[in-house]
Amino acid sequence: MLTQISGIYNNGNIILDEQPSLSKPVKVVVTFLEEEAVIIKKKKPLVAGFAKGTITFMSPDFNEPLDDLKDYM
Questions:
Q1: Cα(56)–Cα(30) distance, integer angstroms
Q2: CA angle 52, 56, 59 (to 5 degrees)
Q3: What percent of the chain has pLDDT over 90?
Q4: DSSP state of 72
Q5: Residue 7 near residue 17 (C-beta atoms within 8 A)
Q6: Within its chain, how far is the Cα of 8 from the centroid?
Q7: d(CA 45, CA 27)
Q8: Nearest CA to 33 among 6, 15, 11, 12?
Q9: What is the pLDDT of residue 49?
């Protein structure tokens, strides 16, 4: 069984965020994750009508009923 518990390594000591519920000695694997700066990009606010004029062609029968749905009409 695998159990994952986070913690902090500082000056040779590992401080776990929670106590594991183990009754006997077990092998452990320690992985050090160095935190990197997270870059947050600000999104531009959406503007009403920003896509106006982008649809240049629409089929003449666009609003006609679909043959696949005849059974439901």
A1: 58
A2: 120
A3: 0
A4: G
A5: yes
A6: 25
A7: 51
A8: 6
A9: 87
Contacts of residue 17, Cβ cutoff 8 Å, sequence gap at least 6 = 5, 6, 7, 8
**Contact (Cβ atoms closer than 8 angstroms) between residue 14 and residue 7:** yes
d(CA 10, CA 14) in angstroms, rounded, equals 6
Quote the tokens at residue 28. Answer: 């452990």
Once rounded to an integer, what is the mean pLDDT over residues 43-71?
A: 85
Beta strand 7-10 with 13-16 is antiparallel
Q: Running DSSP on this structure, what letter comes out for residue 46? A: P
Name the 3-class secondary structure at 2: coil
pLDDT of residue 6: 87
| 20-41 pLDDT, tens digit each | 888 889 898 888 888 777 777 8
Give the separation between CA 6 and CA 17, rounded to whole angstroms.
6
